[in-house]
Automatic annotation (TrEMBL):
Family: Belongs to the short-chain dehydrogenases/reductases (SDR) family.
Protein's recorded name: NAD(P)-binding protein
Any GO molecular function: oxidoreductase activity
Keyword flag Oxidoreductase: yes
Coiled coil: none
PANTHER family per record: SHORT CHAIN DEHYDROGENASE, SHORT-CHAIN DEHYDROGENASE_REDUCTASE FAMILY PROTEIN
Keywords, sorted A to Z: Oxidoreductase
Any single Pfam family the record assigns to this protein: adh_short
Domain of life: Eukaryota
Amino acid sequence: MSDLSNSQVWFITGASSGLGKSLLEALLAEGSRAVATVRKPDALSDLQAKYKPEQLLVVTLDVMNPSQIEEAFRRTKEHFQRLDVVVNNAGYGLMGEIEMTPEDLARQQIEVLFWGPVHAIPFFREVNPKGHGGRILNISSAGGYSANATLAFYSAGKFALEGFTQAFTREMPPEWNIKGIIIEPGGFQTGWRDANLVHAPAHPAYGPDSPGAKFRNMAFTTSYIGDIHKAAQAMIRIAREPDPPLRLQLGTDSFGIVAHRANATLKEQERWAELSHSTNLDGFGTGPEILEAIKEALD
């Protein structure tokens, strides 16, 4: 095997299946190094048999356990002495009407989808020497931009993750070269709607023609169009871009969902613009200078 000392080091949560494992396999095949976190120690025994420890470190990790997250990053620093890309991929879905979703299940969903990635940020900086830079890919969903019936808490977790990613990316001084990228996959054959989907009990008030029932039927009968191997290559490419976008949709379905929701928001905003502007203090008007000042502050 060629010298690995200068190859990138990736840290991937939820690496035992789906997009996480596909990404891991692609990285190892090209010669990159990786820390793969899993909940079951033997989940990646096939790859451990194929790749040497100098290239692959498998760590047992439950993202709901902050001390395990800290330990995983400590082992990463000890093993590789650097870290280039973190991929917060671990997660699952919770499906059910809001009224029938037990609070403990709802809180656990938010804990995994939001707080797991949040805990990773400071440790990522601690692993690297000052000025090393890096990328943090937070795996969201088309449902992290446009919410659907029966997936309220899933979307809430993803919405929170997207807002957090945007905020911490703005907080990072440019010279640190640390950038967050929100990945919004569409439908892929990952097992998400099978083993990785928890169902809350059905509510008797919502019949077969309710919005939730219709969405459930669509979700379980629609053929997914995404190729997880192509998705892995797209994530590798975007992580290596010097000026990556804040958001990247994976798949034409996700691209279309996000575009539709963004356009609908703009149309709705235009429809109610007069009422929005009417709340300004007298004398401020609605001049373009206000909007330009806002744009300058946000760019």
